[in-house]
Amino acid sequence: MDDWQDFADIKWRQVFQLTPAGGKEVVGATSFEGTTEVNTDTHAVFMFSIQVLNIYFPDQDPATSAQFDQLIRSFVPLTFNASLDRLIAYMPKPQSENTVALKNDPPFIFVSYTQCSDFQEVCACSGQQTEMEKITARPTRGTLGPSMIS
């Protein structure tokens, strides 16, 4: 489906295979437009005034394409019933909206595989000065294994 303006005027494209009597299978594509009436109670869409806009036969010469064009136009119904759910599934999706850029970097994790007597030594073991050294005034005693301090 290309467009469904106000759920009233619909435009769509369709690919098909046509096998004329006594002939070879031909692949083509066509574009249609029509008017719709939607029944939300039964989830049905009634399409009417269906018109063929274009028919394409990529592998055919112009004379053969003209014959197939007339044949296809003779098969197109003037009215058609379709499922509302199916048509909505084929509707073009809107472009994604711009979002706010967030900083989702994980926090720095302090890990010590050696014995340290307090938090400041853990930071000294990692070799980095952090804001947490300034905030943390209470030493932690004991052996720190693989752990996460945040």
Describe this structure in words.
The structure is a single chain. With 150 residues, the chain is α+β, with helices and mostly antiparallel strands. It folds into two domains: 3-90, no CATH class; 108-150, no CATH class. It is 23% helix and 30% strand. It has helices at residues 62-75, 84-90, 119-126, 131-135; strands at 3-5, 9-18, 26-39, 44-56, 79-83. Strands 1-2-3-4-5 form a five-stranded antiparallel beta sheet. A hairpin with a 3-residue loop joins strand 1 (3-5) and strand 2 (9-18). The radius of gyration is 34 Å and the shape is elongated. Mean pLDDT is 80; it is low at 121-125 and 134-139.
Report the mean per-residue pLDDT as an integer.
Answer: 80
Fraction in helix: 10-25%
Number of strand segments: 5
Class from helix and strand fractions: alpha+beta
Compute the gyration radius: what is it?
34 Å
Spell the H/E element sequence: EEEEHEHHH
Determine the N-to-C terminus distance. 53 Å
Low-confidence stretches: 121-125, 134-139
Q: Going across the biggest sheet, name each strand in turn.
A: 1-2-3-4-5
Task: Give the number of domains.
Answer: 2
Task: Using the alpha-carbon principal axes, give the shape.
Answer: elongated
The profile of the biggest β sheet is: 5 strands, antiparallel
Strand portion, in percent?
25-35%
If helices are DSSP runs of H or I spanning 4 or more residues, what is the number of helices? 4
